[in-house]
Amino acid sequence: MVFSLSSNLKKRAELLLVDAGLLGLDEAKRALDISNSDQLHGDGSNRRFSRIYHLQEPVCILVVPAGKGDDDLAEARSAWFIGNHLRSRNVPLPEIYGWDADTGIILFEDLGDIRLHDFIVGKKDLLLQSDADLLTSYSRVIEELAHMQYAGGVDFDENWCWDSPIYDQQLMLERESGYFLRAFWQGLLGRESVQGVEEELEDIAKRTAQAGADYFLHRDFQCRNIMVKDGRVRFIDYQGGRMGPLGYDLASLLIDPYAGLSQAVKENLFDYYITCIGKYTKIEENQFVDQYNLLAFQRNMQFVGAFSFLSQVKNKVFFADYISPALSDLAARLELPQFSQYPIIRSMVKKGIVLWAR
Q1: Is the pLDDT of residue 229 over 70?
Q2: In 3D, which of 299, 358, 328, 338 has the Cα closest to residue 200?
Q3: Sorting pLDDT into bands at 50, 70 and 90, what band is 128?
Q4: Is residue 47 very low, low, confident or very high in pLDDT (cuts 50, 70, 90)?
Protein backbone atom coordinates (compact mmCIF):
# COMPACT_ATOMS: atom_id res chain seq x y z
CA MET A 1 0.00 0.00 0.00
CA VAL A 2 1.35 3.43 -0.90
CA PHE A 3 2.11 5.92 1.81
CA SER A 4 1.20 9.48 0.85
CA LEU A 5 2.77 12.45 2.65
CA SER A 6 1.80 16.08 2.38
CA SER A 7 4.46 18.33 0.90
CA ASN A 8 5.25 19.77 4.34
CA LEU A 9 5.64 16.36 5.98
CA LYS A 10 7.71 15.11 3.08
CA LYS A 11 10.08 18.07 3.38
CA ARG A 12 10.39 17.63 7.14
CA ALA A 13 11.07 13.92 6.70
CA GLU A 14 13.74 14.66 4.07
CA LEU A 15 15.53 16.98 6.50
CA LEU A 16 15.33 14.41 9.30
CA LEU A 17 16.85 11.73 7.09
CA VAL A 18 19.68 14.08 6.16
CA ASP A 19 20.25 15.38 9.71
CA ALA A 20 20.36 11.80 11.01
CA GLY A 21 23.09 10.99 8.50
CA LEU A 22 21.00 8.26 6.92
CA LEU A 23 20.75 9.70 3.41
CA GLY A 24 21.85 12.65 1.34
CA LEU A 25 19.22 15.20 0.32
CA ASP A 26 18.71 13.86 -3.20
CA GLU A 27 18.61 10.30 -1.85
CA ALA A 28 16.07 11.31 0.77
CA LYS A 29 13.83 12.92 -1.83
CA ARG A 30 13.86 9.79 -3.97
CA ALA A 31 13.35 7.52 -0.97
CA LEU A 32 10.29 9.44 0.14
CA ASP A 33 8.61 9.23 -3.23
CA ILE A 34 5.36 7.35 -2.66
CA SER A 35 6.37 4.67 -5.15
CA ASN A 36 9.32 3.74 -2.93
CA SER A 37 7.65 3.78 0.46
CA ASP A 38 5.54 0.96 1.87
CA GLN A 39 2.88 1.60 4.47
CA LEU A 40 2.99 -0.78 7.42
CA HIS A 41 0.01 -1.67 9.55
CA GLY A 42 -0.14 -0.86 13.25
CA ASP A 43 -2.51 -2.82 15.45
CA GLY A 44 -4.72 -0.51 17.49
CA SER A 45 -2.80 2.65 16.68
CA ASN A 46 -4.00 5.32 14.25
CA ARG A 47 -0.44 6.48 13.61
CA ARG A 48 0.99 5.83 10.16
CA PHE A 49 4.10 3.72 9.68
CA SER A 50 6.27 3.53 6.60
CA ARG A 51 9.42 1.59 5.73
CA ILE A 52 11.85 3.86 3.90
CA TYR A 53 14.08 2.30 1.25
CA HIS A 54 17.26 3.37 -0.55
CA LEU A 55 18.48 1.28 -3.48
CA GLN A 56 15.89 -1.33 -2.48
CA GLU A 57 17.43 -1.68 0.97
CA PRO A 58 15.47 -0.66 4.09
CA VAL A 59 16.84 2.45 5.80
CA CYS A 60 14.46 3.15 8.69
CA ILE A 61 10.84 3.32 9.78
CA LEU A 62 9.04 6.65 9.46
CA VAL A 63 6.21 7.20 11.96
CA VAL A 64 3.68 9.97 11.35
CA PRO A 65 1.13 11.05 14.00
CA ALA A 66 -2.50 10.22 13.37
CA GLY A 67 -3.35 13.93 13.15
CA LYS A 68 -2.21 17.43 13.99
CA GLY A 69 -3.88 17.73 17.38
CA ASP A 70 -2.13 18.43 20.65
CA ASP A 71 -2.49 14.82 21.80
CA ASP A 72 -0.99 13.51 18.56
CA LEU A 73 2.07 15.71 18.92
CA ALA A 74 2.32 14.98 22.64
CA GLU A 75 2.34 11.24 21.95
CA ALA A 76 5.22 11.67 19.51
CA ARG A 77 7.08 13.82 22.03
CA SER A 78 6.70 11.07 24.61
CA ALA A 79 8.07 8.51 22.16
CA TRP A 80 11.17 10.66 21.71
CA PHE A 81 11.88 11.54 25.34
CA ILE A 82 10.84 8.26 26.96
CA GLY A 83 12.63 6.33 24.23
CA ASN A 84 15.88 8.20 24.69
CA HIS A 85 15.64 7.81 28.45
CA LEU A 86 15.11 4.05 28.22
CA ARG A 87 17.89 3.65 25.68
CA SER A 88 20.23 5.55 28.00
CA ARG A 89 19.38 2.88 30.60
CA ASN A 90 20.26 0.09 28.15
CA VAL A 91 16.67 -1.00 27.64
CA PRO A 92 16.40 -2.84 24.29
CA LEU A 93 14.50 -0.39 22.10
CA PRO A 94 14.94 0.49 18.44
CA GLU A 95 17.41 3.27 17.83
CA ILE A 96 15.69 6.65 17.42
CA TYR A 97 17.30 8.61 14.59
CA GLY A 98 15.30 11.83 14.74
CA TRP A 99 12.15 13.67 15.79
CA ASP A 100 10.51 16.78 14.39
CA ALA A 101 8.75 18.67 17.19
CA ASP A 102 6.53 20.69 14.86
CA THR A 103 5.01 17.76 12.96
CA GLY A 104 5.71 14.89 15.37
CA ILE A 105 7.29 12.65 12.75
CA ILE A 106 9.95 10.25 14.06
CA LEU A 107 12.57 8.04 12.42
CA PHE A 108 13.18 4.67 14.07
CA GLU A 109 15.58 1.85 13.40
CA ASP A 110 14.02 -0.79 11.14
CA LEU A 111 13.74 -3.96 13.23
CA GLY A 112 12.27 -6.06 10.44
CA ASP A 113 8.95 -7.87 10.55
CA ILE A 114 9.38 -10.65 13.10
CA ARG A 115 7.53 -10.17 16.37
CA LEU A 116 7.56 -12.51 19.33
CA HIS A 117 3.98 -13.28 18.31
CA ASP A 118 5.19 -14.70 14.99
CA PHE A 119 7.57 -17.01 16.82
CA ILE A 120 4.73 -18.25 19.02
CA VAL A 121 2.35 -18.86 16.11
CA GLY A 122 4.96 -21.13 14.55
CA LYS A 123 5.12 -23.17 17.76
CA LYS A 124 1.46 -23.21 18.70
CA ASP A 125 1.41 -26.97 19.22
CA LEU A 126 4.48 -26.91 21.46
CA LEU A 127 3.39 -24.56 24.23
CA LEU A 128 4.46 -26.88 27.01
CA GLN A 129 6.97 -26.53 29.77
CA SER A 130 9.30 -28.82 27.83
CA ASP A 131 9.38 -26.36 24.92
CA ALA A 132 12.93 -25.14 25.52
CA ASP A 133 12.97 -22.73 22.57
CA LEU A 134 9.81 -20.93 23.67
CA LEU A 135 10.90 -20.68 27.27
CA THR A 136 14.34 -19.45 26.24
CA SER A 137 12.81 -16.65 24.15
CA TYR A 138 10.42 -15.61 26.89
CA SER A 139 13.14 -15.86 29.52
CA ARG A 140 15.12 -13.23 27.64
CA VAL A 141 12.03 -11.04 27.59
CA ILE A 142 11.51 -11.53 31.33
CA GLU A 143 15.12 -10.56 32.04
CA GLU A 144 14.83 -7.40 29.98
CA LEU A 145 11.43 -6.58 31.46
CA ALA A 146 12.78 -6.63 35.00
CA HIS A 147 15.68 -4.43 33.92
CA MET A 148 13.37 -1.97 32.12
CA GLN A 149 11.03 -1.67 35.09
CA TYR A 150 13.79 -0.90 37.56
CA ALA A 151 16.31 1.03 35.43
CA GLY A 152 13.61 2.88 33.47
CA GLY A 153 12.10 4.20 36.68
CA VAL A 154 15.36 5.80 37.80
CA ASP A 155 15.29 9.55 37.08
CA PHE A 156 12.10 9.14 35.05
CA ASP A 157 10.51 12.53 34.39
CA GLU A 158 6.71 12.40 34.56
CA ASN A 159 6.58 15.47 32.30
CA TRP A 160 7.54 13.18 29.43
CA CYS A 161 4.18 11.41 29.69
CA TRP A 162 1.54 12.48 27.20
CA ASP A 163 -1.32 10.47 28.63
CA SER A 164 -0.99 10.39 32.41
CA PRO A 165 2.08 10.34 34.66
CA ILE A 166 1.20 7.32 36.80
CA TYR A 167 -0.91 4.19 36.80
CA ASP A 168 -3.53 4.80 39.47
CA GLN A 169 -7.06 4.02 40.62
CA GLN A 170 -8.64 6.62 38.37
CA LEU A 171 -6.99 5.13 35.29
CA MET A 172 -8.22 1.65 36.23
CA LEU A 173 -11.81 2.81 36.59
CA GLU A 174 -11.85 4.90 33.43
CA ARG A 175 -9.74 2.88 30.99
CA GLU A 176 -9.81 -0.68 32.21
CA SER A 177 -12.86 -1.81 34.18
CA GLY A 178 -14.80 1.16 32.80
CA TYR A 179 -13.61 0.29 29.29
CA PHE A 180 -15.00 -3.22 29.79
CA LEU A 181 -18.40 -1.85 30.80
CA ARG A 182 -18.64 0.73 28.01
CA ALA A 183 -17.12 -1.09 25.04
CA PHE A 184 -17.99 -4.72 25.77
CA TRP A 185 -21.00 -4.93 28.07
CA GLN A 186 -22.89 -1.92 26.76
CA GLY A 187 -21.36 -1.37 23.31
CA LEU A 188 -20.78 -4.85 21.95
CA LEU A 189 -23.47 -6.77 23.84
CA GLY A 190 -25.95 -3.91 24.07
CA ARG A 191 -26.73 -4.60 27.73
CA GLU A 192 -27.75 -2.17 30.43
CA SER A 193 -25.41 -1.47 33.33
CA VAL A 194 -25.97 -3.73 36.33
CA GLN A 195 -26.68 -2.06 39.66
CA GLY A 196 -23.84 -2.42 42.11
CA VAL A 197 -21.10 -3.33 39.65
CA GLU A 198 -19.47 0.11 39.82
CA GLU A 199 -19.09 -0.25 43.58
CA GLU A 200 -17.43 -3.65 43.17
CA LEU A 201 -15.05 -2.38 40.51
CA GLU A 202 -14.18 0.65 42.61
CA ASP A 203 -13.30 -1.59 45.54
CA ILE A 204 -11.12 -3.81 43.34
CA ALA A 205 -9.36 -0.74 41.94
CA LYS A 206 -8.79 0.62 45.43
CA ARG A 207 -7.14 -2.63 46.47
CA THR A 208 -5.11 -2.77 43.24
CA ALA A 209 -3.79 0.77 43.72
CA GLN A 210 -2.10 -0.33 46.94
CA ALA A 211 0.60 -1.89 44.74
CA GLY A 212 1.97 1.64 44.27
CA ALA A 213 3.65 3.28 41.28
CA ASP A 214 7.40 3.10 41.87
CA TYR A 215 8.69 1.54 38.64
CA PHE A 216 8.59 2.17 34.90
CA LEU A 217 5.42 0.79 33.33
CA HIS A 218 5.18 0.09 29.59
CA ARG A 219 1.41 -0.65 29.88
CA ASP A 220 1.10 -2.52 26.58
CA PHE A 221 3.73 -5.15 27.11
CA GLN A 222 2.57 -8.05 24.94
CA CYS A 223 4.02 -10.28 22.25
CA ARG A 224 3.02 -8.05 19.32
CA ASN A 225 5.03 -5.18 20.82
CA ILE A 226 8.19 -7.25 21.14
CA MET A 227 10.34 -7.54 18.03
CA VAL A 228 12.98 -10.20 17.44
CA LYS A 229 16.02 -9.25 15.36
CA ASP A 230 19.36 -11.05 15.15
CA GLY A 231 18.38 -13.19 18.11
CA ARG A 232 17.67 -10.18 20.33
CA VAL A 233 14.37 -8.89 21.62
CA ARG A 234 13.44 -5.21 21.27
CA PHE A 235 10.47 -3.40 22.79
CA ILE A 236 8.27 -1.04 20.79
CA ASP A 237 5.10 1.02 21.34
CA TYR A 238 6.40 2.26 24.69
CA GLN A 239 5.25 5.88 24.31
CA GLY A 240 2.35 5.34 26.72
CA GLY A 241 4.85 4.56 29.47
CA ARG A 242 4.53 6.01 32.97
CA MET A 243 5.30 5.06 36.55
CA GLY A 244 3.42 2.07 37.92
CA PRO A 245 3.61 -1.23 39.82
CA LEU A 246 5.79 -4.19 38.91
CA GLY A 247 3.08 -6.78 38.34
CA TYR A 248 1.15 -5.05 35.56
CA ASP A 249 3.56 -5.51 32.66
CA LEU A 250 4.27 -9.05 33.80
CA ALA A 251 0.54 -9.77 33.73
CA SER A 252 0.26 -8.19 30.29
CA LEU A 253 2.90 -10.58 29.02
CA LEU A 254 1.70 -13.77 30.68
CA ILE A 255 -2.08 -13.45 30.11
CA ASP A 256 -1.60 -12.02 26.62
CA PRO A 257 -4.51 -13.41 24.50
CA TYR A 258 -2.38 -13.14 21.35
CA ALA A 259 0.02 -15.71 22.79
CA GLY A 260 -2.28 -18.13 24.61
CA LEU A 261 0.52 -19.42 26.81
CA SER A 262 -0.12 -22.66 28.66
CA GLN A 263 -0.49 -22.61 32.42
CA ALA A 264 2.78 -24.51 32.77
CA VAL A 265 4.67 -21.88 30.79
CA LYS A 266 3.01 -19.04 32.72
CA GLU A 267 4.01 -20.55 36.05
CA ASN A 268 7.56 -21.20 34.89
CA LEU A 269 7.97 -17.63 33.65
CA PHE A 270 6.33 -16.14 36.74
CA ASP A 271 8.85 -17.94 38.95
CA TYR A 272 11.70 -16.81 36.72
CA TYR A 273 10.48 -13.21 36.95
CA ILE A 274 10.61 -13.40 40.76
CA THR A 275 14.26 -14.40 40.43
CA CYS A 276 15.04 -11.66 37.90
CA ILE A 277 13.37 -8.77 39.72
CA GLY A 278 15.02 -9.90 42.93
CA LYS A 279 18.34 -8.79 41.46
CA TYR A 280 17.07 -5.20 41.47
CA THR A 281 14.68 -4.84 44.38
CA LYS A 282 13.37 -6.85 47.31
CA ILE A 283 9.78 -8.03 47.14
CA GLU A 284 7.61 -10.11 49.45
CA GLU A 285 6.45 -12.96 47.23
CA ASN A 286 3.03 -13.66 48.75
CA GLN A 287 2.13 -9.98 48.64
CA PHE A 288 3.37 -9.76 45.07
CA VAL A 289 1.19 -12.71 44.03
CA ASP A 290 -1.89 -10.94 45.42
CA GLN A 291 -0.95 -7.72 43.65
CA TYR A 292 -0.28 -9.59 40.43
CA ASN A 293 -3.75 -11.15 40.40
CA LEU A 294 -5.42 -7.80 40.99
CA LEU A 295 -3.35 -6.15 38.27
CA ALA A 296 -4.01 -9.07 35.91
CA PHE A 297 -7.73 -8.50 36.48
CA GLN A 298 -7.38 -4.85 35.46
CA ARG A 299 -5.34 -5.73 32.40
CA ASN A 300 -7.81 -8.43 31.44
CA MET A 301 -10.67 -5.93 31.63
CA GLN A 302 -8.66 -3.60 29.42
CA PHE A 303 -8.06 -6.38 26.90
CA VAL A 304 -11.78 -7.14 26.57
CA GLY A 305 -12.71 -3.47 26.34
CA ALA A 306 -10.05 -2.70 23.74
CA PHE A 307 -10.79 -5.73 21.57
CA SER A 308 -14.49 -4.88 21.66
CA PHE A 309 -13.96 -1.23 20.73
CA LEU A 310 -11.42 -1.91 18.00
CA SER A 311 -13.46 -4.65 16.36
CA GLN A 312 -16.85 -2.95 16.57
CA VAL A 313 -16.12 0.79 16.35
CA LYS A 314 -12.84 0.82 14.43
CA ASN A 315 -13.87 -2.14 12.28
CA LYS A 316 -10.57 -3.92 12.91
CA VAL A 317 -12.08 -7.40 12.85
CA PHE A 318 -8.72 -9.01 13.65
CA PHE A 319 -9.31 -8.20 17.32
CA ALA A 320 -12.67 -9.98 17.61
CA ASP A 321 -10.96 -13.38 17.66
CA TYR A 322 -9.29 -12.52 20.97
CA ILE A 323 -12.38 -11.50 22.92
CA SER A 324 -13.34 -15.07 23.88
CA PRO A 325 -9.91 -16.11 25.22
CA ALA A 326 -9.66 -12.84 27.15
CA LEU A 327 -13.09 -13.43 28.68
CA SER A 328 -12.22 -17.02 29.60
CA ASP A 329 -9.06 -15.92 31.36
CA LEU A 330 -10.99 -13.18 33.15
CA ALA A 331 -13.63 -15.64 34.35
CA ALA A 332 -10.97 -18.02 35.64
CA ARG A 333 -9.22 -15.24 37.54
CA LEU A 334 -12.48 -14.18 39.17
CA GLU A 335 -12.75 -17.67 40.67
CA LEU A 336 -9.71 -16.96 42.85
CA PRO A 337 -10.52 -16.51 46.56
CA GLN A 338 -9.52 -12.85 46.57
CA PHE A 339 -12.44 -12.06 44.22
CA SER A 340 -15.06 -14.08 46.08
CA GLN A 341 -16.74 -10.95 47.49
CA TYR A 342 -17.57 -9.62 44.01
CA PRO A 343 -20.56 -11.68 42.81
CA ILE A 344 -21.89 -9.05 40.39
CA ILE A 345 -18.84 -8.74 38.13
CA ARG A 346 -18.30 -12.50 38.31
CA SER A 347 -21.86 -13.06 37.10
CA MET A 348 -21.54 -10.44 34.36
CA VAL A 349 -18.38 -12.01 32.95
CA LYS A 350 -19.96 -15.48 32.92
CA LYS A 351 -23.05 -14.10 31.19
CA GLY A 352 -20.87 -12.14 28.78
CA ILE A 353 -19.15 -15.33 27.67
CA VAL A 354 -22.51 -16.91 26.85
CA LEU A 355 -23.88 -13.84 25.07
CA TRP A 356 -20.73 -13.31 23.01
CA ALA A 357 -20.68 -16.97 21.93
CA ARG A 358 -24.19 -16.71 20.40
Answers
A1: yes
A2: 338
A3: very low
A4: confident
pTM above 0.90, yes or no: yes
Asked whether 66 and 72 are in contact (CB, 8 A), the reply is: yes
Does one domain contain both 130 and 169?
yes
Q: Is the pLDDT of residue 130 over 50?
A: no
Q: Are residues 159 and 287 located together in one domain of the fold?
A: yes
CB 108 within 8 A of CB 64: no
Is the same domain home to 44 and 153?
no
Q: Which domain holds residue 246?
A: 116-357
